[in-house]
Amino acid sequence: MATELLSFGIQNLWNLLSHEHKQFQGVEDQVDELKTDLGRLKSFMQDAEAKKHTSARVKNCVEVIKEIIFDAEDILETFILKDQLQKSGGIKERMRRLACIIPERREIALEIGSLSNRISKVIRDMETQGVQQIIGDMRDPEPLPERKEFARQEKSNLVGLEENVEKLVGYLVEEDDDPIVLVTGMGGLGKTTLARQAFHHDKVREKFDRLVWVCVSQVCDRKNVWQNILQSFRTKAEENEIMQMKEERLQDELSRLLETSKSLIVIDDIWKEEDWNLIKPIFPHKKGWKVLLTSRNERVAGREEPFINFKPECLSDEDSWTLFQRIAMPMKNASEPKKVAKEMEEMGRRMLKHCGGLPLAVRVLGGLLAENYTELYWERVSKNIESHLVGRANDGNNNLLNRVLSLSFEELPSHLKYCFLYLAHFPEDYEISIEKLHYYWAAEGIIKYTNGESIRDVGDSYIEELVKRNMVISERVSTTWRFEECRLHDLMRDLCLSKAKEENFLQIVGNSSPSVSTSRRFVSHEPSALHVERERNNSKVRSLIVLKKYLTKYGCKVSCVSFTRLQVLRVLHLPRVTFKGRKLPSGIGKLIHLRYLSLEENCSLEDLCGMTMLRILQIRLTGESSLVTLSASIGGARHLETLDIRLSGAAKGTKEWRSLFEFLNLQQLNLVINIPLLSDELQFPSSLTTLFLEGCRLEEDPMPILEKFGKLKIVRLHGNSFCVRRMVCSRGGFPQLQSLHFFELDEWEEWIVEEGSMPLLNSLEIWFCKKLKEIPDDVLRSLKDLSFYDMGEDCKNRWSEGGADYYKVKHIPSVYMYNQLNE
User: Fold this and answer.
1) Smallest Cα–Cα separation from 324: which of 404, 422, 431, 237?
2) 293, 267 Cβ separation under 8 angstroms
3) For residue 692, what pLDDT band results from cuts at 50, 70 and 90?
4) Order of strands, edge to edge, in the sheet holding 543-547?
5) Phi-psi map region of 207: left, alpha, beta (phi>0 left; psi -120 to 50 alpha)
6) 702 phi and psi, to 5 degrees?
7) Where is the NB-ARC domain (predicted)?
8) Among 509, 513, 512, 533, which residue's Cα sits nearest to residue 521?
9) pLDDT score, position 105
10) Cα angle vertex 546, ends 3, 444, to 5°?
11) The whole model's pTM is what?
12) What sign does the dihedral 458-461-463-465 (CA atoms) show?
């Protein structure tokens, strides 16, 4: 597998040299020689892969090649970036460049020559070990194919699980003396899938007032679990208060809430009886609540309390085949049965026997084979599975499953292997932000996109491929039709960590243990302090990431003198860090390779000055913040595409805000500020496609201003973004608007929509707007997705099935009304 990733790296180097050939004037001969050497090197990779498992020397050669490729990328990109910076400088910089051009060319010629010598040496070493050259060709890069619009994702299949779901729902809604329901079984059996289906079931939602889902995993932190449960009962605004609560108060608050409500608490993936003993003190003796536990351990609930132990069975052969068919052989027309050639069916059923009836294995195998529905490809995969299993027929379901999962990884294209390995950064059961993930990928050059494409669009296509193959769990959000978060099944994460370790892909560092790894990526989970001096001993580090899974009021203290030794750093993610003197180290500004920087803004606004190439900027401001300073700090960032500003204090007037939005390329604007007026003076960019407002407390209807922005496709008005009683959308307004979301607008009572307004609107969400009396008929006619949550009693009665206005919404394909109308 390493050699395939290296072949991907070699091809990327070839592409870089081809694309940027003009940059290497004066060293053309050395560049051409390096391209020739890269072609020779790649021709040895296939046989090296076959021999590395039986020869330690060949394996060492592969590791040497990996270092050569990384070093070559760093050397060549550094030269290109410095050359570009000098060309864009002033007169003095250009004069200095002319004076230095000869010694710089001499230096790069020597470095390229050194790379060629290293390649020649490792090729000689491989030849002495009997590694053979397999002639192929290195091709100049071709334009990326035009990407098609994403097809709508189908809902998850429940083949063979329907009966289990109904049984589990029955246990949850029954009035009995067993408040604890435990779902147990081996990994890959579908315990979490069953729990999720029951959690969203209509009968369950009718039975309980509150539904809470938390994950525990192998490391149980009682306080964090209790905080997450309480957060589900409270509003977002109370998050800081919950973070500061001591355990005694958390227990009292939760016990009181559970005693006075009918609540279902799902605790997913709990491992030990001791963990349950830590969590359970919050549950009062008075019944009304229920707990659903999922675990691989039957003894997790202990023996002192009564509980129901529900053990789902593996899929039957026929259910396995049905599920496999739906994934591996999707039908164009659901009404017509798929015709399967006899040879294909025989191969499919033979491979399914290795899945042992485990739904996860069936899904992964189906996703693998769906990529290439040909007899030749299926035969190759079948032989690969059988070769992995020779002499291991009695290994049991766990090992069979692991080998199916491993094969699914081996069959990924090279770029998707990199994407999947990157997920090893994240802790167990971590809800991964796909937007951030995309920027990590792009910063490291994994995502390839043209000028006409966005990182999100290309990144979504990569995620979609991993989802289709059942290697990543994610669903598109109805309002944006994008993947917003993803996670890994426990067994997939085990595979990901195993492959990442095998490839030395990254190093997970702790608070105190010194780093001795040669990895070029470092990640730290929940650190209280980060000692950059340790990581900077490896001057070739490409990414440094801190991740915090749980709510906490404590940040991370970064100990460093400077970042100057981390010269090839591309990704720096340090949420809630505290630098000495709250000042961004000056060395960060000299990191010319840096493409992703996240500090959650524990720094000063002045630190943003000079960051003229920023494309995405999120700012959180607390206390007294000068709008003039903010404007001056980001005014030069003319390439901004996404701007997110959250200000805790009040902003008076609009004069200081005008210059904040003079960005010609801005597409997404998020404002969480108190600014009472929108006026024609406050002009948003005409390029804007997405707008989010919260806490603005606008004193006039914002629609006459907003509806003039003809490219707006998504508008979200949240949390008292306006405080007016009446809203009017005019004829011809919002010509491109597709998604509209209202949330917690306490004063809003009347909504008037003139004919011809919002002609393309297809998704509408209205949550916690209890005074709103009516939804205009013109809005409802074109909708494909409608969601209401906790509306007033009058709306509840009229929109429910059988109510006076039910006929207005029954044509909409997807309708969700909490405790009112089932989807």
Assistant:
1) 404
2) yes
3) very high
4) 507-509, 521-525, 543-547, 571-573, 596-598
5) alpha
6) -80, -15
7) 162-332
8) 509
9) 79
10) 35
11) 0.73
12) negative
